[in-house]
Amino acid sequence: MARTEKTSRPAAVVPVAEDWDAERQQLRAELGARMKTVRQACGFTLEVAAQRTGLAVSTIHKIENGRVSPSYENLVKIARAYEIGIERLFSSDHEQAQTTRMTVTRAGQGRKVRSKNFEYEVLCNALAEKKIVPLVTRVERRAPLAPADLEAHTGEETLFVLSGRVELTVEHYEPVVLEPGDCAYFDSTLKHGLRAMDDTDTRVFWACTYTDVAG
């Protein structure tokens, strides 16, 4: 009689969607913890931070506790209100003054940050007080953007599509669909927004100008 061998049951595979949800939660928590550390290092209470940023105390509290993801517009508001370079919100590497004026980020080694509608890989974050913030950005598919979905902040920005298709909406202009290899440049003070058109992996290289002192 033939002997039946026992076979081990393969380990359960976690669905990609669950992996992505877990990663988003982790990124929110990490960003929130860094933002709380920076606020406290500046000597600001939640109430003072709210007054300086124009955000509600509850909003800052939720961001710091990883319960919500801030928009890029709010990240800029917070950095300006704290009078710091925006890179300070992305990494604790800048607790000491940085003297380097040249830095390299190897492929896939940037600091990942989760915002409201995007996942950013922040590049060259070891260089403090940059005037340009370079990002590789994962863009999510969502419904056509309404006026309430758009945001604005000081500066200028450019994006170059690496994969997938995106729809760029800029105030006063018709929405435009961009495909891999396409590039756009616009004034960040105009309300704007970006969404992926498909469920495929959609990424853009995004660069935004930034100065830590308004005006």
TrEMBL record:
Task: Name the source's superkingdom.
Answer: Bacteria
SUPFAM superfamilies hit by this protein: lambda repressor-like DNA-binding domains (SSF47413), RmlC-like cupins (SSF51182)
- Name the UniProt key words of this record, in alphabetical order: DNA-binding
One molecular function GO term is:
DNA-binding transcription factor activity
Q: Does the keyword Lipid biosynthesis apply?
A: no
| Record domain HTH cro/C1-type: where | 35-89
List GO terms (cellular component aspect): cytosol
The name this protein carries in UniProt is XRE family transcriptional regulator
This protein's species is Meridianimarinicoccus roseus
